[in-house]
Each structure stands twice: as structure tokens, then as C-alpha cells.
Amino acid sequence: DMESGRERECEGEKVVHVQISNFEYLISKNIEQKMENKKREPYDLEERTFLFAQNTRKFIKKLSKTSGNIEDGKQVIRSSGSVGANYIEAQEYIGAKDRVLRIKISRKEAKESRFWLRLLDTEESAVLNQERERLVQEANELMLIFGAIMRKIE
After folding, report:
1. Half-sphere exposure of 71 (CA within 13 A, CB side)
2. Helix, coil or strand: residue 122
3. pTM for this structure?
4. Which end of the chain is more exposed for a tag (fewer CB within 10 A), N or C?
5. Distance, first Cα to last Cα, the chain
């Protein structure tokens, strides 16, 4: 078992091991990283951010169509999708500063998603409140993951 934050070689790549909650990530330190290398990670962060955006959209469809939910729903749909879109951009970065910026934006968008999710009116439905809490928790975990990645690549 490897200590979090330690660098090592993995299949010829220099990587940093990061552990958040029960998930482990290997973050590539190579400048010429290819998307295929991401598939070797213990958990695919691109897929995780996609599922967050997808699950957020499914949740929004279940809410009553109040004016607040319509407007806040539009905001959370944008921000939840932007988490993954910016992470993908970070993998295709032009320079190291561009990569750090994209990871920072992903973290900011996860934080914004959490805000909009908390504003949505679930009309005290226990099922909807539980689903919202799962999404808020996922936004929190994504914030922690992107924060850890930022610290490792800056």
C-alpha cells in the first residue's frame, strides 16, 4: 500500500498516489499524458464527473416546476456538466498553467453545483431529500479530489 502524495513509476509513467475517502487515484505527472493512460487509474474520474452531471439531470426532472426550481435547475445543470467538461479540458492542456486552471475551474463548478443543489425545493420529500444529499455529497467529494489534484500538480 502506498502513502498518499508519494510519487512513483507506474508502467513507465511518473504518477502521484492520492486517496480521498475510499477511492484511490493515480495522477499522472507526465507532460505528454494521453487519455488512454487515464483508463489505468483505479477509478475513472472522467466517468465519475459524467455520472454526477447525468444524475443531477435525472434529479432535476423529478422536482416540481416552481419558478425557483426552474431557474436553480438550469444553474445546477450548467455547473454539474462543467465539472466534467473542464476536467476533460485539463487532460488536453496546452501548458502546466492551463491544466491547473482547468482543475481549479472543475473544483469551483463542483462547489457551485453543491450550492444550487441545496437551493432546490424538494417539498420535504424524504426520497428527494435523500437523493439531493447524495448529489451534495458527491459534489463535496469531487471538490476534495480536485483540491488534492491541484496541490499535487501546482
Report:
1. 4
2. coil
3. 0.72
4. N
5. 25
DSSP-derived letter for residue 2 is -
Which cell is 10 given? 507506474
- Which of 101, 102, 98 has its CA nearest to residue 86? 102
Tens digits of residue pLDDT in 127-136: 999 999 999 9
Cα–Cα distance between 61 and 102 in angstroms, integer? 29
Could you give the angle at which helices 96-119 and 126-153 cross, rounded to 10 degrees?
160
Cβ distance 153 to 96 under 8 Å? yes
Question: Grid coordinates representing 142?
Answer: 469531487
Q: Residue 138's closest CA among 55, 79, 15? A: 55
| Average pLDDT estimate for 115-137 | 97
- Cβ count within 10 A of residue 60: 20
